[in-house]
Amino acid sequence: MEKVDYLIVGQGIAGSLLAYELEQAGRRVLVLNEEKKNTSSNKAAGIYNPITGRKLVKTWLADELFPGLEGYYLGLEQTLGAHFIYPMPIYRPFFNFEEQNDWSVKASEAEYAPFVKELRAKSMQLPGVIDPVGGLVLALCGYVNLPVMLRHLKKYFLDKGAYRAEVFQYDQMTINEREVTYKDIVAEKVIFCEGPMAVNNPYWGWLPFKLVKGEILEIDSPLPTDLILNRGVFVLPKNGHFSVGSTYDHAQLDYEPSESGIKNLKDRLGKLYQGEYAVVSESAGVRPATFDRRPLIGFHQDLPRIGIFNGFGTKGVSLVPYFARQLVNYLNGDGVIIPEVNVSRAIK
Q: Does residue 89 sit in helix, strand or coil?
């Protein structure tokens, strides 16, 4: 029998970074992963952004998450010998003069100043971009190329004998007070990091996930390649093209782009950019969002050796490193799982 401290099920961004942090803390891990093309992490744009939404508000926990975020991924790049983080400002054109006036005050306030690179009172004169009253250039932004990062983390675990490619079979797991046994593996705990597949998990399928399908266009365009545009849609320079996204569909949860979804993207893009572009490809993914837009982290109320680390939605790049470390500290007896993310909040 192979003995490990933690069996991690799933090698998306959640499972990968949790396993990495546990390993860095001196714990022995084994990652089991169903290798398939259509995963939420591989389809994600990977953007990190401290100021979000139509009303331009600080994202939840921005002050805790963003100051060290780029440093975290740069350190991981050094460990893995790979390049996958691309710090890049986000330009968010103002809707009107009222919004511009609001931000002329807010941009210098202590609460927002660290996240504002520049306030533009006039158009940036980017060909085709609709910004007649200027906009906000945000700092501490960019994207992580998740497929590249996950590929190198897989190699990292493989080199340590800590990775297996297989479909997890729930009926092959037995649990007692001291340990969990799965086939030839004995673990102190099992932590499920299955993304949207968690809805089929017999231990966690009852949780109030609110899965959402997102579609993305890939286009060629003469837009600048050192800036992310974001108003209604994001336009992200990536892999030699531009990714345009995303839609939010809670009904049709598949990995096929829909005609209505692609039309919606093109219509929204037209309100931000009226220049020339050519569609290169269309894609879709399903994200593991939750009922209250907060992650689900913790352990089963009746089976405390069964855990979950899931539900990061569109903000996994910024949330997962922070909460992976928080969970590792908790497991080492040196911290708590905050109530806002603790899975216990979903128990009725």
A: coil
* Alpha-carbon gap, residue 209 to 105, rounded angstroms: 38
154 neighbors 163 (Cβ within 8 angstroms):
yes
Q: Positive or negative CA dihedral for 70, 71, 76, 81?
A: positive
Q: What is the pLDDT of residue 348?
A: 61
Share of the chain above pLDDT 90, in %: 93
* Pairing mode of beta strands 90-93, 135-138: antiparallel
pLDDT for the residue numbered 37: 79
Q: Cα(294)–Cα(138) distance, rounded to whole angstroms?
A: 24
Q: What is the pLDDT of residues 18-57, one digit of tens each?
A: 999 999 999 999 999 999 877 878 888 999 999 998 889 9
pTM of structure: 0.96
Give the residue ranges of the chain where pLDDT is below 70: 348
What is the distance between the alpha carbons of residues 169 and 34, in angstroms, rounded to a whole number?
11
Q: Helix (H, G, I), strand (E, B), or coil: what is residue 301?
A: coil
Using an 8 Å Cβ cutoff, are 133 and 97 in contact?
yes
State pLDDT tens for residues 117-172. Answer: 999 999 999 999 999 999 999 999 999 999 999 999 999 999 999 999 999 999 99
Comparing C-alpha atoms, which of 288, 285, 296 is closest to residue 327?
A: 296
Report the DSSP beta bridge partners of residue 235: 229, 244
Domains of the chain: 2-44+147-207+292-346 (3.50.50.60), 47-144 (no CATH), 212-287 (3.30.9.10)
Q: How far apart are CA 79 and CA 113, in angstroms?
A: 32
- 116 Cβ contact partners less than 8 Å away, ≥ 6 residues apart: 51, 103, 107, 136, 137, 138, 139
Residue pair 17/316 in contact (Cβ under 8 Å)? The answer is: no
Q: What tokens appear for 57 in the block?
A: 């508000």
Distances (CA, A) of 60 to 66, 111, 300, 341: 11, 13, 26, 12
User: Closest Cα to residue 228, out of 82, 74, 51, 41?
Assistant: 51
Q: Is 155 exposed, middle or buried (0-12, 13-18, 19+ CB in 10 A)?
A: middle
Instruction: Answer yes or no: are the C-beta atoms of 285 and 40 closer than 8 Å.
Output: yes
